[in-house]
Amino acid sequence: MNIEDRVINSVKGVLDKRPEVTLDSRLLEDLLVDSLDKLMILSAIEDEFGLEIEEEFADVHTVKDIVVKLKARGF
Amino acid sequence: MDRKEFYKRLWVDESLAEVTGYNPYYLSVNSGLNERLLVNGCKMIDLASNNYLGLATDSRVKQAAIEAVQKYGVSLCGTPIATGYIDLFQRLEEELASFVGLERTVILPSCYQANNGLFSCLAGSEDLIVVDRLVHSSLIQGIKAAGCKIRPFLHNNLNHLEGILQRSSSYRQVFVVTESVFSTEGSVAPFKKIVELCEKYGAMPIIDDSHGIGVLGKSGRGILEEQKIEGYKGIYTASLGKALANSGGMISGEKRVIDYLKYYCSHLVYSTALSPAVLAGISAVLDIIRVEFTGIKHKLISYQRQIHKALIEGGFEVVAGEAPINSVQTASKEVTFSLGQRLYAKGILSTPFIEPSVPLNQGRVRLIAGAGLSPGTVDEAAGIIKRLGAS
């Protein structure tokens, strides 16, 4: 599975009752993600990719932003 | 630096109240929680307060508070660690510990303070707190203050929780935090199973039983009794201002934990102790619960079912809960306020919840028909709700 699909699946796994998740989905506006949802998403990403996420993911706005940050970390 | 700019930043967005013509916050209440509540000069049916057992205006509770005032005055003007630890305080700690079946209890000025102060006292940067996605703000704020890693789990989802616990063995201590009754939903945590998972992974369970104490269990002793959890080794917090009809909060658990909190929990150490009237009032409520709980609970459940039936008949979407709470799903904050306003206009006081009290676009209007209401009043409320849904 490519990195994009792994991220989308991780996001879907912790967001119940939400609309479809795509790379272009905006976390706040489209997926209605609040601060706790965001923590859950980042935790799921940590588990999926076996990494420790710190402040560098604080400014992610879309699902694609998470992919970009992961690629910058060498994934 | 400009102080004018500072004041400009302190802006309250009242647009929702303006659009809906209704502001449910800081209503002017001119009576106690009687058969009818006087709000802005109008008589209202109280489906908003957490007076589950209807004991807030019970004559025996009032008398106990009066006698305490006569003996001790209105305040000891000190924190519990100084002059506030009167014999009433100490006896109530013992009573509460025995009531919930735990070794020791400490009493704080509110459960918000209990939940706020607990985590920064017991957890640090080497620890992990795993917390149900829907817990109360007091727990979230308290957890954030601890400065440790936080991982929320999906509401009441044991598989998600266990997955996190499996991957969390590298922390000094893992805490699992949840509530017994989620008050905006009326859902109840599968706490016995959560405790079993904590045992399996060496985690410390922490439960906020604010909407469970005095309500759940065969004799009203809360979630531990309800789910037959024996020999609980975790930490327990609860509000004394809901079913117990007074004010304050409690933390219970093993002696070693409570003794530590008594010296190191700054929310306790630096807060003026609960007043004698309140301490005596809580004790009187516990006495009533011990004798009359079965009858009171029967009324509470019967009222909850009657209001639930009226909501369904009225076409409202009601969250399927197990607690004596009816929670209407309203989605957007505009719809949530609008339903609150329509109920208010017909003489029913409800509690609307919008973000951040609930997740975005998952608004709720909560209705609690306490056992202190008369059957006639509940009939009237049910009729109003049905007609409102039909209109």
Short description:
Chain A has 75 residues and is mainly alpha-helical. Helices cover 49% and strands 0% of the residues of chain A. Chain A is globular.
What's the SSE blueprint?
The complex is a heterodimer of chains A (75) and B (391).
Chain A: H1 3-14, H2 35-49, H3 63-72
Helix pairs in contact in A: 1-2, 1-3
Chain B: H1 3-9, H2 15-20, E1 37-39, E2 42-46, H3 59-72, H4 87-100, E3 104-108, H5 111-122, E4 128-132, H6 137-146, E5 149-153, H7 158-166, E6 174-179, E7 181-182, E8 187-188, H8 191-201, E9 204-208, H9 223-226, E10 235-239, E11 249-253, H10 255-264, H11 266-269, H12 276-313, E12 326-331, H13 333-345, E13 348-349, E14 351-353, E15 363-367, H14 375-390
Parallel strand pairs in B: 2-13, 4-5, 4-6, 6-9, 9-10
Antiparallel strand pairs in B: 1-2, 3-11, 7-8, 10-11, 12-15, 14-15
Helix pairs in contact in B: 3-12, 4-12, 5-6, 7-8, 12-14
Keywords:
heterodimer; A: mainly alpha; Non-ribosomal Peptide Synthetase Peptidyl Carrier Protein, Chain A; 49% helix; globular; B: 391 residues; Aspartate Aminotransferase, domain 1; Aspartate Aminotransferase, domain 2; 2 domains; seven-stranded mixed beta sheet; three-stranded mixed beta sheet; 15 strands; 43% helix
CATH fold descriptor of chain A: Non-ribosomal Peptide Synthetase Peptidyl Carrier Protein, Chain A
CATH architecture of chain A, by name, is Orthogonal Bundle
Q: Which structural class fits the helix and strand makeup of chain A?
A: mainly alpha
Number of strands of chain B: 15
CATH superfamily of chain A: ACP-like
The number of domains of chain B: 2
Helix and strand element order of chain A = HHH
Termini gap of chain A: 13 Å
Q: Write down the oligomeric state.
A: heterodimer
Number of contiguous helices of chain A: 3
